[in-house]
Amino acid sequence: MKAAYQEATAFAPATVANVACGFDVLGFALESPGDEVTVHVTRKPGVQIIAVESDNGLPTSHLPLHPHKNTAGGAILALLEGIQAKFGVEVHIRKRMPAGSGMGSSAASAAAAVVAVNALLEEPLALEQLVDFGMKGEAIASGSEHADNVAPAIIGGIVLIRGYHPIDLVRIDPPNNLYCTIIRPHCAISTKAARELLPKQIPLQTAITQWGNLAGLIAGLIRGDDGLIARSLHDVIVEPYRAALIPGFYALKEAALNAGALGCSISGSGPSLFALSTSENIARAVGTAMYAVCADMHIDSTVYVSRLAHGGSRVLSVH
Ligand code: HSE
């Protein structure tokens, strides 16, 4: 396949994976922040990552430029191979959230990358079809192909991954009143390490509690039933293990619930926490309360408040 355009830029948003009770099978997109990726066609096949910049325009020193080790690079390589591309690309990545934050940073770069390359080709693939390629990039960062960040980062909304073999995505429109607060303590957790500490088997009773919560959460989101959402936003499998990686986790969660959040848990593999609230005012109060807890512990943090986004990645320019 040949490129129809020379250069394209795409945006992909931050995402919250797991959403408490849906480890590896549920995630949603935020409106902001998000990463931007520009791809430029080259005659030389393959992928060359030219630059990875952070918010302030400075290069990030810790993210690899080798395409096989970079989530955007790996996703593009898989896509170029999948479509038997007759061209290569140079890639410029602008990060708006740090890696290892639990906000789907690696997925956002992979998602924006495949959406930008698809734009060069006049979009032969539907957004859903790009998820498989995005997952190949995500696997570089986490050591496993999971779609609960990359699928919402690409297609937007709340996404249930009903199955992986083959991938079966169920997109749910977010209720319009729901706002998400994220607090990102300024430290990093490797998703790979946070996956390795999870148990390989769980007791049946624990599984029953979790799948009741997951089904309840999905039903609550579809019905817009805030009470059901609040009763369901509990994670009895992963959170008890990963909480220990996040300083003050239980104090932060308590502060969010006391400030009026429907529920609060770890965003992805952490260290960020997310909380869902029924208005922007409550979501901001939740952010203020959690920020104060971090400040008391002398931990710097950043708070983000966003609606749950209906859209995911979008093409910003193509020519
Ligand atoms: N479901 C993944 C995990 C998301 O929790 O390991 C990582 O962002």
CATH architecture group name of the largest domain: 2-Layer Sandwich
Mean pLDDT: 95
Attached small molecules? L-homoserine
Biggest beta sheet attributes = 7 strands, mixed
Residue windows where pLDDT falls under 50 for at least 5 positions: none
Span between N and C termini?
A: 17 Å
The H/E string reads: EEEHEHHHEEEHHHHHEEHEE
CATH-defined fold name of the largest domain: Ribosomal Protein S5, domain 2
Q: Based on DSSP secondary structure assignment, what is the total number of beta strands?
A: 11
Shape: globular
Proportion of residues in β-strands: 25-35%
CATH class of the largest domain: Alpha Beta
Walk me through this protein's architecture.
This protein has helices spanning 71-82, 105-120, 127-142, 150-155, 191-196, 204-223, 226-232, 239-242, 249-258, 280-296, and strands spanning 7-17, 26-42, 46-53, 88-94, 158-164, 167-172, 179-185, 263-266, 273-277, 301-307, 314-318. The protein is an alpha+beta fold and 319 residues long. The model has no long low-confidence stretch (mean pLDDT 95). The protein is globular, with a radius of gyration of 19 Å. The strands form 2 sheets. Strands 1, 2, 3, 4, 5, 6 and 11 form a 7-stranded mixed beta sheet that branches. The chain has a 4-stranded antiparallel beta sheet with strand order 8-9-7-10, with helices on both faces. The chain contains 10 helices and 11 strands. The protein has 2 domains: 7-173 and 309-318, 2-Layer Sandwich (Ribosomal Protein S5, domain 2); 179-307, Alpha-Beta Plaits, CATH 3.30.70.890. α1 (71-82) links the parallel β3 and β4 (88-94). Bound molecules: L-homoserine.
